[in-house]
Specification:
alpha/beta, Rossmann fold, 6-stranded parallel β-sheet, about 45% helix
């Protein structure tokens, strides 16, 4: 089985590497020569635990190669995956599908023999129909099927998610295409991973509905956390109490500064606009988008309030700037709302992140970037934890107190126990948890 993966971004690179681990011959294609050069030299353009080793092993085995030449990759492929970006269009919430459609046209121009064209990118309902139309108009004689096969990869655990998935969703009504996709995913039969065959339209909607539901769950517990602060309840206890209900589940019930990343923000917006376009608005999702935006913007006020109502002339130590740990992804990270507000209020901000600083430096001006966590705290007036990297969970609290001008900590991820922090002599602020 031979696969061409168009796009070496997060989804394309991880998927291509994992398919090659399954024994499939994979060619990853990207127009960016610099990125291809990096990959051929074993340098990963993204941070994902274990990805460098996986790529290295399969390159050495001859199953994984990289190229800028789409034509040759497509001509020899049994299946061609479209894994290009679908960012939010400027001036609205619709997904920008220009890269998907351009890839479809180029694939049509170069395919040879029966080919399964698979949309791996996250795309709105109806995109598969348009891809099929583009290919048919470009190559009326082409022998092909278009399949939807959405990804469900979590940054930081993407390899495990691909090789041990909760489910694989495949949208096609073609028995011929189904057989090709079954063969590609056959190694997963050994672990009895569920493979859901459905229509292309249903498959496209499954992806958006799944991400939107998870974003809703996060937003729900964040609002419950705010209520806990008003009535004196503990959001950790509430989350545990409701999460033990099998109908609800405990995952994504962690209060914090709001969701970010490459998926939830753009996918919730895209689904909202798709629903509005067809006259079936999703009021719950519209509220989720609005509440999350407001929440991220309001988090800086918690830090400002902890400093007596102003951070003018004060130094804020920030730990973590990526939207979540175990990734270098800065897309829609809460820090992008929090840090500029602190700077505008007159603060000096010193920050450290284990993986995200290179990208963050291009997005956040006037920040003093430090070499480690403790360097941010030396002479600072408040410590703010924005991302819950494991390295921040076991800080030497006595050392932290010695370095800070005042022992004030604002923990936006609730990684410390309020009672322990109070006993250690900190003026501790968290999310939705009562203080002793």
């Amino acid at each position: 089985m031979r696969v061409a993966m168009i796009g070496t971004g997060y989804v394309g690179l991880v998927s291509g590497a994992c398919f090659s681990e399954f024994g499939v011959d994979v060619v990853c294609v990207d127009k960016d020569q610099g990125k291809i050069d990096m990959l051929e030299n074993g340098i990963m353009p993204i941070y994902e635990p274990g990805l460098d080793t996986l790529v290295e092993q399969n390159v050495k085995a001859g199953r994984l190669t990289f190229t800028t030449e789409l034509a040759s990759a497509v001509k020899n492929a049994d299946a061609v995956f479209i894994a290009v970006g679908t960012p939010t269009r400027r001036g609205g919430g619709h997904a920008d599908l220009s890269y998907v459609y351009a890839a479809a046209k180029e694939i049509a121009e170069n395919m040879d023999g029966y080919t399964v064209v698979v949309t791996k990118s996250t795309v709105p309902v109806g995109t598969g129909d348009e891809v099929e139309k583009i290919i048919r108009e470009t190559r009326p004689d082409a022998d092909f099927d278009v399949v939807s096969n959405p990804e469900f990869l979590r940054e930081g655990s993407a390899i495990t998610d691909f090789t041990h998935p909760d489910r694989v969703v495949i949208g096609t009504d073609s028995p011929r295409a189904q057989e090709v996709m079954r063969e590609l995913y056959r190694p997963l039969s050994l672990i009895e991973a569920p493979i859901v065959f459905t229509s292309r339209t249903s498959s496209e909607l499954i992806k958006y509905a799944a991400n939107t539901f998870l974003a809703t769950k996060i937003t729900f517990i964040n609002e419950v956390a705010d209520l806990c602060e008003k009535v004196g309840a503990d959001v950790h206890d509430v989350a545990k109490g409701i999460g033990l209900d099998g109908r609800i589940g405990k995952k994504f019930l962690h209060a914090g500064p709001g969701y970010g990343g490459s998926c939830f923000p753009k996918d919730t917006l895209a689904l909202v606009h798709t629903a509005q376009d067809v006259g079936s608005p999703l009021r719950i999702v519209e509220a989720v988008v609005d509440i999350n935006d407001r929440r991220k913007k309001s988090m800086a006020n918690r830090i400002i309030d902890a400093c007596g109502g102003s951070v003018a002339g004060k130094t804020v130590a920030v730990l973590g700037v990526t939207f979540k740990p175990n990734t270098d992804d800065m897309r829609d990270a809460p820090s992008l709302d929090i840090i500029p507000t602190l700077l505008d209020d007159g603060a000096t901000v010193r920050a450290f992140d284990p993986e995200g600083m290179k990208e963050a430096m291009t997005l956040l001006g006037d920040v003093e970037w430090c070499d480690d966590a403790y360097a941010t705290m030396d002479g600072a007036d408040v410590l703010a934890i924005i991302t819950e990297w494991n390295a921040f969970r076991g800080l030497d609290l006595e050392r932290v107190k010695e370095l800070l001008n005042t022992p004030v900590m604002v923990d936006l991820r609730n990684i410390y126990e309020p009672s322990e922090m109070m006993e250690a002599g900190f003026d501790y602020h968290c999310i939705g948890r009562p203080l002793p």
